[in-house]
């Protein structure tokens, strides 16, 4: 049993005199002390210069942001309008009609975050002169310069095809070997012994069949990511499928969805992950005409930090930045190829499209 | 009352039930009642510390004129619409559909206030939408110094803006309480502007209904707790604004209302919470955003432009007519008024001169 010597309040007046003895166990006493110090922490920060505990100034955040890597989309036009790629602290929503390539983006981020960074890709995708110039200017990274991260792929539609992922992984490794040969001719060559299976082995795949499973999964993600600290991207394909039907209580649906959105935001910020949500489109009637808009409507539209909409313009696929706090609204074309997921438009004409 | 030989003591129940002044008078009669008088003084000082004393109109006017300044937003037209800018002591709400410019206005106002006024800006971010890069851009645009000087200026301004990510309502309340006790104890650090972007994403998960299927928060708190938390957050922001002379800004999103139109989220009880409500909307696919006033303590009734007065008179005429005809619903009245308010933001300089004469 413990004896409490005395308890004082903020004004340093004794509230409990030493004569009072509390018969409590050691664990309980520690818990009380922890709670008390938590409650009194306001006093302990008088010396701290921060206005609010846990806040950062904008200047510090600017420098932190410069050091954050971005996940490239492997298409330079797209990367340009995205400011370098998908940001690793934000929730990005990608929406489009079926068949436009949303799932391709999903595969891409799951694999690319492991091995390739932007400079490397520019190197490989650019023309010959650009390549040589970059080879001279670019700092050779200590390793392959990738994020070295794993990916979580949450599949609600069942559209993940392992064969396609394998295709992309093989193409990726081929590119890395090419880079290896190009850049390290002079310095010691490091032999790449990576197999496509290893790349696929870095993807954690979850199959979700109902909305309760989806809610459970999102709740579980925080624990999972804190145990697997090398996860760098979470892809959810597609986020809204299970909420479009079977929900009688619309108010409940709004609450659940907004709660989910907050949890994803918190996950992205706390663990510096890129969270990518793939969403379907639906038709909406407004101002006298039908037009396409993302599923789940206005209540879900504020649940992401950035939004990219994929659409057809004639025969070409385009991506448009619909919502972003720091990027301008812009469109960029892209294509889907058989030996790689996406590629810039100018090169696709030579290699042929899917 | 019990008398002992040495001290004049009063049982606690008497202290709580009887009138304090009567007790004081009684204590005065006894010669050795020092501790009682001390106790009464202490109780009175604790009560005064918790609650504001009575203020009369002159005190309030003096406070409004001397301590509650107008903060310019950095955008000329918004300043003109608001007759100077955001007022300290007010809670301003920006409501609008997705990507209508709410976060951009918040970032703009934050940059301008950090640059022009001494004191810091506190930004509570619920959607990871605080972009330091964008702030740097805006500050660069606002200042027109040479390159070397402007770098130092940017650093200084950005050090005045503090951002804290919040992902649930309890964290927000906790951090607001922290801020309040910090402001109360330290005279030095001054906060000019407080932004919560967006408060609706913190409140929508807990607002409304109860049931076995609900999220963990609601199951613990019960049905009306979400409502209570929303109101307490609003009151806390207003109290912070009033007592510490800062301006509070929150953003809200829109949900679908009757007939396919959009209405602000958070329901009827939140409507009367902010002092100023501004509605933002963007014409589809254009980059021009419009802002109109939904609610303001004093702007609607003033003769700021002739059009405004005209609207008021026509409303009165409608009121007379409607006693014979069908009742005029509030929606068409609001639409009519909104149509008249739109030109306010796009009025040019020559009109200003006319009005000044």
TrEMBL record, chain A:
List where in the cell it is found.
Nucleus
Which GO annotations describe the biological process of this protein?
meiotic DNA recombinase assembly; reciprocal meiotic recombination
Name the Gene3D superfamilies on file. Answer: P-loop containing nucleotide triphosphate hydrolases
Pfam families xrefs: Rad51
GO MF: ATP binding; ATP-dependent DNA damage sensor activity; crossover junction DNA endonuclease activity; four-way junction DNA binding
Top-rank lineage group of the source organism? Eukaryota
Keywords for this protein? ATP-binding, DNA damage, DNA repair, Nucleotide-binding, Nucleus
PROSITE patterns in alphabetical order: RECA_2
- Please list the residue ranges annotated as the RecA family profile domain: 67-281
* Cellular component per GO, a single term: Rad51B-Rad51C-Rad51D-XRCC2 complex
Q: Which InterPro entries match?
A: DNA_recomb/repair_RecA-like, HR_Repair_Mediator, P-loop_NTPase, Rad51_C, RecA_ATP-bd
From the record, what ranges are coiled-coil? none
**What PANTHER family does the annotation carry?**
DNA REPAIR PROTEIN RAD51 HOMOLOG 3, DNA REPAIR PROTEIN RAD51 HOMOLOG 3 RAD51C
Task: Tell me the protein's name.
Answer: DNA repair protein RAD51 homolog 3
What organism does the UniProt record list as the source? Escallonia herrerae
Automatic annotation (TrEMBL), chain B:
Major location (coarse): nucleus
Its GO biological process annotations read: DNA strand invasion; double-strand break repair via homologous recombination; reciprocal meiotic recombination; telomere maintenance
Keyword set, alphabetical order: ATP-binding, DNA damage, DNA recombination, DNA repair, DNA-binding, Nucleotide-binding, Nucleus
Residues annotated as domain RecA family profile: 67-254
**Compartments where located:** Nucleus
GO CC annotations?
A: microtubule organizing center; Rad51B-Rad51C-Rad51D-XRCC2 complex; replication fork
InterPro entries per the record?
AAA+_ATPase (IPR003593), HRR_RAD51_Paralog (IPR051988), P-loop_NTPase (IPR027417), Rad51_C (IPR013632), Rad51D_C (IPR047323), RecA_ATP-bd (IPR020588)
This entry's Gene Ontology molecular function terms read: ATP binding; ATP-dependent DNA damage sensor activity; four-way junction DNA binding; single-stranded DNA binding
| Organism domain of life | Eukaryota
Assigned protein family: Belongs to the RecA family. RAD51 subfamily.
**Entry function:** Involved in the homologous recombination repair (HRR) pathway of double-stranded DNA breaks arising during DNA replication or induced by DNA-damaging agents.
Write the protein's name. Answer: RecA family profile 1 domain-containing protein
Q: Which organism is it from?
A: Escallonia herrerae
In the record, what lineage is assigned to the organism producing the protein?
Eukaryota, Viridiplantae, Streptophyta, Embryophyta, Tracheophyta
